[in-house]
């Protein structure tokens, strides 16, 4: 049995969507217990009617629009802060929320805490590639600037994720740059390249952003500024293509028929990219697994996020990152 | 009459494609003269049979794989270096090549030279947006690192491009960041935000990468590292979606019919994004217009690139950038 704390108040949709997602996760995983965090009127009726659940009652919520650090500091009884405290106190072994990334990151770092040797936790996402293979991509926004030593730690954490969650043997790590040559990149990237060469034989050199979705690399590391900009560019391009296709379908009956026939394929791709089936982005470097729901909230996304968090707990990801760091550095 | 120098040796395809593109540009624009740069066996027969052309004979070529600075330094009789020298000497008023971006940038900066007050020339591309509106996006790779003062100059140059080539009145400029708040971004981006606020009322604040294809902003500035990574991510995502759609079509007859019907729409979008119809990316900050063909070379791309270069010459873009800088700074 593992216990995942799930934030019933997080996400774009109503908490009914989150609760239904939790319900489906419980049905699918009989070894799962859920600590359901939220306002009493939301979580108490649900837990009263669901086995293997417990309410974690709180009085506040943090919205997507609030300033993360301020919200975490002032709303000590919010579902996000209470959840992280519950993980710290051992009432749950991991946390999943589809709420504000910044608030989850701040609260988790403060309450759950970093693995001792990790300087900066990072946000990682396993991007589905063309080859059917996933690429672990980090950092996606936790650290706008990252020194060479920090990027080396990202590499260790990304390798641990690829090994333990995606079951890749001896994962290779590439550094995102604007060209494959070691001399390419900003001053910070060129310095990081040198540090990674020294870090280990698993460093495969620079890669370009177009390689990420090609499924050519196991792990790609970058600073949180670049990672965030790249991730949003993937989303923006998908939206652009879909809207353009719809616009052209409106002008041409052949295109319209084509688009309606191809809709299933497009939806399948959107689901792959949104991470609905893999549950979301993972905070790496903390003492317990924390998952952030990515994309617009849906019942399936909440279900898969909860299950993915349970999987990370069972994989002992946090302690494996810690032992990898000791071994590799 | 304007004279554009076109590199007959540049591009992925044979020089026949380039020559056919030049031919079509000459047919479409009766006020155009072309100085055709290349090996004698390529350019001399073509010029002998085409009015309004002159050969610019050279003995060397620079390939896509060569190190740009080394190639420009050692191959003084290459088509790229000879073309830039011809612009400097007044034999042509602008240059278009589908060759190596790095080599064109280096040779043009050295031979044609910068506008006096411009510290760092930049590569700009007018990205087609969802609203039908184009967004001038720079720098795309000329300057991996860019100080705040450099980004302010990029803003002036981007505004001049939007005003004179895209005919936008008083263009607004946004700074690419990982969030819209002024506090978001790397240290360099936060400092650039402050400098841009002071630079002028046309600064609309930070934008996110997903805004670029949405067609919401007139000009987006960023350092060349980020710009290059973002541009390649758009290309990578388009390729990903297209390949995934084809893969799914292979498994499902409905999808296959859909995809073949929607193919025209997909091709239309690919042409929009590739810049085939707008000719390519523009070097800004030099004393004469230089255009770099973007995407795989085609007859249409060469034709449009040559015409776009002639248009930039007629718009007096270079001298307008110079006078804007004096007025705005």
Q: What overall geometry of chain A do the principal axes of the alpha carbons give?
A: globular
What structural category arises from helix and sheet content of chain A? Answer: alpha/beta
N-to-C order of helices and strands of chain A = EHEHEHHEHEEHEHEEHHEEHH
Number of domains of chain A: 2
Helix coverage percent of residues of chain A? 40-55%
- Please give the count of helices of chain A: 11
Keywords summarizing the entry:
329 residues; alpha/beta; Isopropylmalate Dehydrogenase; 2 domains; 11 strands; 48% helix; 16% strand
Describe it.
- The structure is a homodimer of 329-residue chains.
- In chain A, helix 4 runs parallel beside helix 5 (101-111) and helix 6 (148-164) packs across helix 11.
- Chain A has helices at 15-28, 40-48, 68-74, 79-88, 101-111, 148-164, 187-199, 224-249, 253-274, 299-314, 317-328; strands at 2-7, 32-38, 53-57, 94-97, 122-128, 134-138, 173-176, 203-207, 219-221, 281-284, 290-292.
- In chain A, 59% of the residues are buried.
- Chain A has two domains: 1-118 and 285-316, 3-Layer(aba) Sandwich (Isopropylmalate Dehydrogenase), CATH 3.40.718; 119-276, Isopropylmalate Dehydrogenase, CATH 3.40.718.10.
- An eleven-stranded mixed sheet of chain A has the order 3-2-1-4-11-10-5-6-9-7-8, sandwiched between helices.
- The first copy, chain A, is 48% helix and 16% strand.
- The mean pLDDT of chain A is 91.
- In chain A, a hairpin with a 5-residue loop joins strand 5 and strand 6 (134-138).
- Chain A starts with a strand and ends with a helix.
- With 329 residues, chain A is α/β, with parallel strands linked by helices.
